[in-house]
Structures are given as C-alpha cells and as structure tokens.
Amino acid sequence: MEHSFLDRYSHLGSVIHNLDARTKILCFLGLIGLTVLTPPQYWPIFLAHFALMALVLILSRVPVGYVLTRSLIILPFVLLTAVFLPFLPGDRPAGGTSLGIGNVTLTASGLQVFWNILLKGFIGVFAIILLSATTPFPRILEALRKFKVPAIFTLLLGFIYRYLFVLLDEVLRLKQAIESRGYRGRWIWQAKSLGRMLGQLFLRTYERGERVYLGMLSRGFQGETRTLTPSRLRPGDYLFLILFLSVTALSQILFR
Amino acid sequence: MTAIEIRHLSFSYPDGHQALKGLNLAVEGGECLGLVGPNGAGKSTLLLHLNGLIPSPNGAVRILGEGINKQSLPGVRQKVGLVFQNPDDQLFCPTLFEDVAFGPLNNQVLAEEVPGRVAQALKKVGLEGFEQRSPHHMSVGEKRKASLATILSMDPEIIVLDEPSSNLDPRSRKELIRLLASFPQTRIVATHDLEMVLQLCDRVALMDQGAVVALGLPEEVLSDEGLLKSHGLELPEILRLVPPEKRLELVSRLKNFF
User: Fold this and answer.
1) Does residue B167 contact residue B140 with C-beta atoms inside 8 Å?
2) I need a labelling partner for B132 at 20 to 30 A (CA). Which of A162, B22, B126, B162 fits?
3) What is the ipTM of this complex?
C-alpha cells in the first residue's frame, strides 16, 4: 500500500525545505495573487514568475518531472471549462473554417481568455505542488494555525490528512472482500453491491469518528484545541521572503 | 490504598441491552489487574466507565477515593489513562509529537514543560526520535507503544488498557508485556490473552454477563478449568502441559521469564 504519495519529497533537507512553512505560504500565495492580477497580454511577466518558481524548484532538489507531471492535473479541468471560449462570438475573428454545415470562427479575445485561464491555472497549481513537495503537511497546518485560520478548519484538515490512508486501506479491504467472492462489477445490477460497499464505508467512518472522539475526551479534550508552536522565523526566512516577493513585484513593474 | 472502587454498577445501552449488572470491584493501588471474560461480558463497557466516558450514577465508581462528577471529571481523566484497542483511534494527529502533547496541553501543563514530557513519554516506550513521524508510517507494534506514550505524557496514576496484545507479532507482544510489567502505576488490562495475564497480572477478575464472577490470583482463577468453561473461556494451553498440582510452579516460572 502506497502510504506517502501526498507529501513524498517533503522531507528532503534543501534550503527551500528548511524555510518556515509560513514563509513559503506567503511567497507562493503572493505569487499566485500577482499572477492572477496580471493582464493576459503581459506574457513576459508570466515567464518571469515561472522562471522564479523553476529556480526554487531546482534549489529544492525535488525531481522536476514530479512537480511538472503533478501540475498537469489541472489541464482536464481547464480544458473542460474553457475549451469552448475561443468559439464564442467576440470582437475580431482570429481565423475560421467551413465545415460544410456551418462556419466555425475563432475569436482573438476568446483565444486570449483561454490562454489566460490555462496559464494562470498552471502557474497556480505549480506553486501549490511546489509548496506541498517542500513542506511536510503538519508544518503547513501549523503555519495555518499561526495565520489564525479558525481551529475548526485546521483540525478538519489534520483529520483528513491523518485518516485518508486509514480510509483508503478500508476501501481496499472492502474491495478485496467483495472481489474474493467473485464480484467483478460488470453489469448494471451489480451496482447494488457498490452501494452497499459505500454504505459500509460510511458506517465504518462514522463509528471511527465516534471512537476517535472518545479517545480525545479521555485525554481531557473540552472542545478547545491547544497546540504548541515550536518553529520560529529565522533571518533566512525574512531574506527569502523579501527576495522572492521583490523579484515577483519587480517583474510586474519591468514588463508592464 | 484503593485505586478504584466500584459498587453496584449497572448500565444499559440505549437499545436496552444491559451490559453491566450490579458490578462490584476494588483495585488496589500499584497492582496490575487482569480483566478476562467472553465477548460481550461487559469488559469494554466497564473500561469506558473508569474515566467517565460513560457517566456512572453518583458514587458507583470512585477513583482514588473520589466520585466521578462534573467537577472531578477533568482530574479523573488526567489520573486515569485509557488506551484503546485500535491505535488508529488513539492516534489522531498528523504527527506523533502532537498526539503525545495532546493530553498534557488539555490538562493545563505549562507549554514550556510539554516538549520535555513528550520526550520523556516517548523514551519510556522506546520511541525516542519518533516525534515527527506520522502514525501511518509506523508499524502496528510501534503504534501500540505510541498509544501508550500518549497517556504516559499525562502522568496518570492508573493505566487502563483494552486488548493491548491484540494484532501484535510475538516479539512486539513480548516487548509490550515487558513494558507494562515495568510500569509502577496501577494497571487494568482487559484481554483474551490469558498467557499474558499469567505473566503480567497480580490478580485477575473474571467477568461474565455484566458482573465479576471470580476474583483472585491468576494462577488460581486461570487454572480452574470448570470455572473457565462455565464462563466461555478455555484453560490456557500452557497450563494443560503439566498436571494440576504443578501449575502454580509453572506460573511462577513464567513470571520469571522476562
């Protein structure tokens, strides 16, 4: 059972890994924000932002292919939502062809919007993947707590991270159990078993939740989460923060 | 001193099933008490009463002389550490450090003292340096020890364990028994592992149908084949190997094994 695919390279010891999670969250969110605010025609800015992240990626020693292939998961979503945009009526046609039944026209503005969504989506996901590949998830949660994100969210995220694998194992066991009794899931009426399996999974998850809650109560939980905050921002963090954000901002000024 | 005193404790689940029927039990301070009995005897239900997860009628359960009520509840939960059967229920934080620190932080331990407590608790169970590990990166044996650490960090006076040796391979099981034997605290161990009771426990309580039906030395209670059979248990295989008059000697040798 694959048990660490979520944050596989997050325990390497590079310069980037050693930064505080807060620094990285601020930098990458800043970069995403500025990217989103950049008008689509200023493509050198996108290039500069991407180059900056590529530099961070190289410094982090995380395999480039890993981050790139992970970032591609955004493509199907972008394509699904944006694929028709270039064909919508717009200001000036960029090209077209006759299909015999009617004319298909591409518009320049539509193409620009499409390109815009694709690029910004990719850069955003790239930044997030880079964050998760260089920061162990518990550190990200700790950073969120320090950013005063409400405890209910950080607690929930923590539980998801903790129990995702437990749940996956449970699904796997259920699947093995029904398959070992000859289930192949080929016919529509076999979907009933799938429904039962989902029901089982829900019940097991629910009961686990109850037991975990009892476990929390027995260790004195009274509805309020208390955590320690061991990590500190070091000079390197400030340096990185200033460098990263000023390069990002500078590219905005230079290329406009 | 009596660590736990239970008088006429009865409890029915909302579906009407009566799990405990007028149970009486006294546990001495510092002793290790085995709790055995068939499935459905009420062992787990009893354990949930011991730190107030199931509220008990006034005075029916007394912990170190004190009844469990709303005022005493936080103190009782600090004094009685409950280790659940499934470590995946006990360990719910992203890292082991957070899990072991969870109890002390809830019990008003000063924040500066917590890392020391965590390190100490992990050292006691032999998991030094595991602070930043995630439970899903640990073996079952390690998870079991980690579960123990999560309550040791609260500095409890009574440790209550539900099936501590289940699902463990022989070596991890032996390590765990050694570990439990080394603790000075009062321990209550609910289990089907009768060999472990013979090695580990000072006394054993046999439960059936919501009540304690026999209480005594493990070598006496667990070598009484008639008694065990009538309550859905079997004589431990190892005691079968010797004639009845030699069983006491065998058990005392078992205890010296580790």
Assistant:
1) yes
2) B162
3) 0.83
Kindly report the nearest CA distance between residue A6 and chain B, in angstroms. Answer: 12
Interface residue A66 vs chain B (CB under 8 A): no
The answer for A 201-240 residues in CB contact with B (under 8 A) is 208, 211-212, 214-222, 226-228, 230
Which pairs count as long-range contacts for B227-231, CB under 8 Å and 24+ apart, including other chains?
B231/B37, B231/B38, B231/B41, B231/B206
Residues of B in contact with A214 (CB under 8 A): 48, 53, 84, 89
Q: Residue B107: which of B62, B49, B150, B56 has the closest Cα?
A: B150
Q: Do residues A142 and B93 touch, judged by C-beta distance below 8 A?
A: no
What is the pLDDT confidence band of residue A1, given thresholds at 50, 70 and 90?
very low
Q: Calculate how close chain B gets to A217, using CA atoms only, in Å.
A: 7
User: Residue A12: which of A54, A61, A55 has the closest Cα?
Assistant: A61
Ordered by where they begin, the domains of chain B are 2-255 (3.40.50.300)
Q: Which of A161, A212, A226 sits opposite B94 (nearest CB)?
A: A161
